[in-house]
Amino acid sequence: MRVLEPWVTDPLVEFVRESSARVALVMTSSGQVIAQHGFTRSLDVMAAAALGAGILATTSELARLMEHGGDFGAVVHQGDREGVWLGGFDTPRGRWIALAVFGRESSIGLVRLFFDRFAAQVSAAAPPPVAVREVLAEGFERELDQSLRALFGGT
Amino acid sequence: MSLERWQQILREITGVPGVRGALIVSAEDGLVVAESAMEHVATSDVAALAAALVVRARQTAHVAHGAPPRSVHLAASGGVLLAMAGPDPLWLVALADSRAELGRLRVLLGDFAVSLA
Fold this sequence. Notes:
The complex is a heterodimer.
Chain A: E1 2-3, H1 9-19, E2 23-28, E3 33-37, H2 42-65, E4 74-78, E5 83-91, E6 94-102, H3 108-125, H4 137-152
Antiparallel strand pairs in A: 1-3, 2-3, 2-6, 4-5, 5-6
Helix pairs in contact in A: 1-3
Chain B: H1 3-14, E1 19-26, E2 31-36, H2 43-63, E3 71-76, E4 79-85, E5 90-97, H3 102-114
Antiparallel strand pairs in B: 1-2, 1-5, 3-4, 4-5
């Protein structure tokens, strides 16, 4: 497990343990990775974060078009052997997204149950928002490299 | 079977003294299929946990080379959770307090579970 925000660690550890999720990813609504569990390659994480954020953005827009009055909250893709849970939740740091891949040892209901608890724990543990640092063009590559090192331990 | 018939079954179960509520759960995905009279109970949470219990019981039976369980009875200090297997993947689940007539409830659940198809 790798995290950029240390206060996310405990809720994420509990979520993974209780829901039996095989893979978990926490990201901002724009696809910036906050924490990950189960991924082995940075490329997979970046792609999953971008695709997950895109899927939730799409469903939110669909909800708006249908005058659903908000968004759908979560999207589930169920396959024969694995399912994917994608849910958005509000934190003091803005809207975040959690993606979980689960197998037959778990279920949609179980992931939903512990996702709700995870979202509440993250919101409660979040420190007050800090001023957003401007990422200058010359520092962008270094910032990105630092984030990837934090998430993958220098691999 | 129609949802209306399922609701009728659930109402009969919740009519047993001491039963706090009844629901039909899909053990495959841990979701509520139908529910009745579950005041102050998070039915979606009960469904998820009951389904997890059923799956673990199945796995235990499999490892022990036994037949798949047809019922699961979880006794707690404040009451019981009784689950009876219906047509796969449905399970009929009842939550009852310690005053409930468990024998009658088991018979009722068993009779109704097989008629869920």
